[in-house]
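Amidophosphoribosyltransferase
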Amino acid sequence: CGVIGIYSPDCDADIASLSYLALYALQHRGQQSAGICVSGEDGFESQRGLGLVTDVFEKEDLAEMSGNLALGHVRYSTTGSEKMINAQPLLTSSIKGDLALALNGNIINHSELRSNLEERGAIFHSDLDTEVIAHLTAHSFSDDPVEALVESLHKLKGAFSLVAMTENRLVAARDSRGFRPLILGKREDTYILASETCAFDILEAEKLREIEPGELIVIDGSGIQSRFYREQCQSSFCSFEFIYFARPDSIIGGQNVRLARKKMGWNLSQEAEIDGDIVVPVPSSGISAGLGFSEESGLPYKQGILQNKYIGRSFVMPTENIRDLQVRAKLNPISSIINDSRVILIDDSIVRGTTSRQIIKMLRSAGAREVHMGVSSPAVAYPCYYGMDTSRRQQLIAAEKSREEIREHIGADSLTYLSRKGLLAAINAADRDYCTACFDGEYPLAR
Ligand code: 5GP
Ligand code: SF4
Ligand code: MG
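Tokens:
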């Protein structure tokens, strides 16, 4: 998911439009639903809906939502249900006042917390982890909504980057290991929180700093207050953000994502023992690593596969059969480039194996003599419990099959994955610690 929060010192007629633009920049983080909530003179006003940012919001209505605080969310479901009721921000009301919440992450103990709350009479309206936070906050003894929220954060286990707002305060918090990103920026005297820096670029805002793991900040008329509501743990930032999830123009921990991906390609080229004529990336996720591979190997980089830009991420389709066809609708090889060549095909990851199997089939029909698959991440063999959509282990081809079996399944002449070491070197692992659990099963947090 992607989240944003905006605080403007004065009532700003453009706040909903600023939120819209920021969410537009974060669209790659979730395409299932989108929502904006503004706190203005008449309380909270919101627009939410299923689908893309450009489909959900009515521009005229946005123009009428003025206020000085806003939250926004784009949703990528990790639990599967794409109902309207699951669109965020989540709006709640209690004797403590109004509270809106938007979350990126996954609360591991959410079923347990939910059962406890239900036993105490709480009635849930959605499947959202976020709603657990809302009920915990409402049940707290503290009268102050922000203190009540902090109290509820202590009960959560898992990965969360959270933005929240009361009538006049904007709040941001990260779990104590900082799995998911959350960054603070500024545009004139307006503060902006966002999952990635690409949202600041679109608003001509400057990046101030990242919210730290275990940190909570409150922004209101008296400025920014920061505190560590939890003692800081060793950081476990998601390495998959660098590999696939984040936008290439974003900067994470001082590193440009595109450059990190190129380095993954360099390292893959150094590790791989593959001979070929051309390096062809799978668009668009394999492009940066493909460039890196080509630079390091000295083999020519060719855009031998065309991408239909009007098709969304193919991962989200429900059945294998439709996913297969969707890959063909999205990607098409260019025979004049591919014909009679030994192709080194580069993609960022293999999850189910659908994309690579289809593409390799198409490359062979287009006349490729050999297809060698290079993957700029290690094999994804373990499910993610921290907010990425790989939680059902049987979907992961590397959970069941050996490298040789995967090579056979996708129909490649050879298959090389980047080593864990090569990955960590590409993202300067010395500077901070990363989660690599989906590759090695070393979970930083027990389930
Ligand atoms: P596969 O076809 O093997 O199931 O998936 C691999 C492709 O999906 C890669 O091209 C990669 O860019 C993309 N991908 C990897 N992880 C994710 C994810 O968590 N969500 C989505 N939407 N796509 C992913
Ligand atoms: Fe990221 Fe993988 Fe860790 Fe999940 S398990 S947080 S996808 S590195
Ligand atoms: Mg891809």
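The radius of gyration is 22 Å.
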